What does this fold into?
Amino acid sequence: MATSHYADYLDLDTLLAAQHPRSQPEHHDELLFIIQHQTTELWFKLMLHELRAAVELVKTDQLGPCFKILSRVKHITAQILNQWSVLATLTPPEYLQFRHVLGSASGFQSSQFRLVECILGLKSPAALSYQKEQPDAYAVLDEAIKSPSLYDEFLRLLARRGMPVPKEVLERDVTQAYEPNESLMPVFKTIYEGTGEHWELYEMCEKLVDIDEQWALWRFRHVKVVERVIGFKRGTGGTAGVDYLRSIVDRRFFPELWDVRTLLEPAK
It folds into this structure.
């Protein structure tokens, strides 16, 4: 096997030549803005790689190997959360010097971000409208919307393990965003109050909560950085900016795993 140079193995010539500031004259801080978003997309790529593997493991009742993958996803999310602190060094006057070159480009158009949301259960068929000019991305996102999420597959696994998961949950329309279902609460209450008997299921629940919590923190940090840099201006994609971002901070991928905590009683 021929030896590869570090730069060849990582295709650094391509990677490091992928930043193309458009401001004229080039503004010093545009490179920061580009790299911030490019590195986030790279982390999304790895996250999708891991989440797809996790779905397949859950479908085949292999929770043990899934735990490491979900732990990795949690740490990837922590990485993109921490990246906001770098972008927060961009001041409003600096950003205004090159914001116009973005045109209508917006993070809303990130197909990978939408795919992550889909696999974790936040389905949004309306998100397809952002991919109309990207047929390959449209097709992949459309397929993800039509496929069961990680949570859907976990609920099916619970049913296979003998848990009384309601039929309407197992047969729900998976193209729609998951909605909380009160009838699932006894299932998760049983798992959380019987950790000795249901340790593997309990651990899976907590791995999912880890990811959900990291994403909530990511959304909150996103709001604060956007507010710090542009105030309450509208987003480049036409959204309401900070007001919209605030409205989605409390979204949850796995709602029953949070709600069950209120119902738990001390062991007798």
Remarks:
- The two ends are 64 Å apart (CA to CA).
